[in-house]
Design brief:
Number of strands: 6
Mean pLDDT: 85
Largest sheet: 6 strands, antiparallel
Radius of gyration: 15 Å
Structural class: alpha+beta
Order of helices and strands: EEHHEEHEE
Shape: globular
Length: about 140
């Protein structure tokens, strides 16, 4: 059962990822300190940063962030316009082209779910969801 959710939509800009992190912080602050432990809040912000960066970099240059709180999890949902699902890549330790984020999201989340976005355009799109713990032991 969702008890609270929010939405943030943006186009690629120098500050888009920072704006997404701030939107997630604001969302978590509205929940209050009893709703999520500080270390789990930091994890949510990190996952938001990674998923939004991936949406901007690989998903068409725009995103919609939809965080939500459920009974024992925080859901971070990021929608973009690319129909291509995220993929594991070998992290690039030489040229700095990435490859770390999707591994990290999968390691931190209880579950990751990728679903096609129902849309009238032929390009399609997707929503990537990460379900994260709210409390230790959750």
């Amino acid at each position: 059962m969702t008890t609270m959710s929010a939405e943030c939509t943006a186009l690629a800009s120098l500050s888009a990822v920072a704006e997404a992190r701030q939107a997630a912080r604001s969302f978590l602050e509205t929940l209050g300190q009893q709703a999520i432990e500080p270390e789990h809040a930091d994890t949510v912000i990190l996952v938001v940063s990674e998923l939004v960066t991936n949406a901007l970099r690989h998903g068409g240059g725009s995103y919609t962030l939809r965080p939500a709180v459920h009974h024992d999890t925080i859901e971070v949902a990021v929608e973009d316009s690319s129909p291509l699902p995220p993929r594991m890549r070998t992290p690039d330790l030489v040229d700095g082209t990435g490859g770390f984020g999707w591994h990290m999201v999968n390691d931190l989340a209880h579950a990751t779910i990728v679903t096609p976005t129902p849309t009238p355009t032929p390009e399609g799109g997707k929503t990537v969801r990460a379900l994260l713990p709210r409390r230790t032991g959750a």
